Amino acid sequence: MARTKAGSAPDSTRVALGLRQNLAQFVLLVAVNALVGGTLGQERTVLPLLAGQVFHLDLYTSALTYILAFGLSKAAMNYFAGTLSDRYGRKPVLVTGWLVAVPVPLMLILGPSWGWIVAANVFLGISQGLTWSTAVIMKMDLTGPKQRGLAMGLNEAAGYLGVAVTALATGYIASAYGLRPGPFLLGAAYIALGLGLSVLTIRETHHHAKTEASQHVSAHKSADAGLTTGRVFTLTSFKDRSLSAASQAGLVNNLNDGLAWGLFPVLFVSSGLNLNQVGILAAVYPAVWGAGQLFTGAASDRWGRKWFVVTGMIVQAAGLAIVAAAHSFGPWLTAAVLLGIGTAMVYPALLAAIGDVAHPTWRARSVGIYRLWRDGGFAIGALLSGLLADLYGIPAAIATVAALTAASGLVVAVRMRGNDHITG
């Protein structure tokens, strides 16, 4: 068995690509990503309320600093996760991500000032960037090109169902036992379990990517194997039509998710909803998002990525517009379902589109750069929505982001090629 910088790699002739051939490891990685999502979900219902009720932050911009810190740190780590996993292997990056998360629940429970909460979200962002990006890359490695949409759908479904279940659970825990410490003890349990599974059961997958590279037929002329990281960044961000269209759509998608995370609970509570109702609304959006991806990822393998993305962005925009206009639980529940459906259409299709176009030898870097832009949307969304909410109110902030989301879908319609999902 040959040894490489990326870990132990068996003879490539004995490495099989495909979901069925690697089912046990794939299922374990799905479970790990559900725990990654749950670690994020511990904050979705509780932290916006903690900002106002415990730390007495009045301005929305100040209250949303934790999302800004999370978005910037996660975006940066997404970029480095791809490069590090190519250099040192996927598993060491995954384990490191879990280790970084260890202090987060304690900081959220014991933090005496808002600065501690912001610092905890820096650690959480680093952890999420390393763990979630690596889980994506490892599933792409295992499945190969023909089931990439299905793989991304299962990956993102697990992660966001983890977010949803935990957002719902923490809403109930907070209503019964208070905002601290109960909700964050659940996050601590997730971190312990995720770290244990990653250390003891997950195996290295870099050699699967090398096997695919040896069999790869380029999706287009730019997809040669010898690109520098700078060239990969330029292609993914600006020059390649499909890669850059996916990157901007990912950024806008998470911009509106950052808005939903930071301002929706505040809007709902200020309109008279109780914590249980807020928890339900905070959970329905990622639950529909997560469950929907079980179908949309595989469907994009059959029908292509482009129009799933375009339609999904328009549906998200409609959901946001309803949130901005409504004043009660029923319409907001409908809007949460629409947001979930739209995001389910977009999320796995965008990731799979990156995997379709990028060559296997630089795919991990391209995924990392895409996720840099996508999760940078959290930071931009926190700043933009906070400033607009301070100046014009929460409904105006939500309406503005709805318009941006619709415009992003139109960019994809014009710019993304329609046949990049047809791979070898």
From TrEMBL:
The chain crosses the membrane at residues 23-40, 60-81, 93-110, 116-137, 158-178, 184-202, 307-326, 332-351, 372-388, 394-414. Residues 17-420 form the Major facilitator superfamily (MFS) profile domain. Keywords: Cell membrane, Membrane, Transmembrane, Transmembrane helix, Transport. It is found in: Cell membrane. It comes from the Bacteria. Its main location: membrane. The lineage of its organism: Bacteria, Bacillati, Actinomycetota, Actinomycetes, Micrococcales. PROSITE patterns: MFS, SUGAR_TRANSPORT_1. CDD domains: MFS_MdtG_SLC18_like. GO terms for cellular component: plasma membrane. PANTHER family: INTEGRAL MEMBRANE TRANSPORT PROTEIN, RESISTANCE PROTEIN MDTM, PUTATIVE-RELATED-RELATED. InterPro entries: MFS, MFS_dom, MFS_trans_sf, MFS_Transporters, Sugar_transporter_CS. It is a multi-pass membrane protein. This is MFS transporter. One of its GO terms (molecular function) is transmembrane transporter activity.
